[in-house]
Amino acid sequence: MRVGLFLRGVLVMATLAGGLYLWEVLDLSNVFTNAWIETHIKGRGAAGELMFLGLAGLAAGVGMPRQVISGLAGYAFGLALGSVLALAATTLGCVGAFYYARLLARGPLQKKFSGRVRRLDDFLHDNTFSMALLIRLLPVGSNVATNLAAGVSSVRAVPFVGGSALGYIPQTVIFALLGSGVTVDPMARITLSIVLFVVMALLGVYLYRKFRHGKSLDANIDDELGATETD
Length: 231
Hints:
Elements: H1 2-25, H2 34-40, H3 45-61, H4 66-77, H5 79-103, H6 106-112, H7 114-124, H8 128-137, H9 143-152, H10 157-179, H11 186-211, H12 219-225
Helix pairs in contact: 3-4, 3-5, 4-5, 4-10, 5-9, 5-10, 6-9, 7-9, 8-10, 8-11, 10-11
């Protein structure tokens, strides 16, 4: 038992070290910029699409906001293809972080985030698909922290990832629209994106308050959303 825990700890350290090494070697801190997209992604066909998908999936897995990824995907590929690739990359990041936590880092993460893990486990356990979808519609919260906490918890992977992917769609499309070069006046496109975001955010808050059934995802989130125990 102790040997297994030791080996798992070594694997965690090795993957973290490998990730840091790749970050430095590939200079990933300077990858997701418009200039980098212009040079390495746009106009390169399937190769550019696969490169974006792989790097964006990695970035989503380690915490890059999915809204940023969606905006850059819209800029690189337009609204339709950009939305598809951004959704795929964000979902890959979700799967990667979930299984990293579940297979390698369960022990350390359980100790570090025990309270958050218990709340998320309770929130997701009975209706994992629906509640995961609900979480992703909210305008607040950390995507990567939710993925890691879910991986540590007892929730099943398929309904969690499926609900997450479906819940990612609205903001993915909104931010891909914001970043895209569709033939709409830029001010109109920005205004439309803002209106759609506000509408979806309000819908997410309404659904959270209506269907959480007294469960709390996070006390700070409840405060931000005006959700109380009497809702």
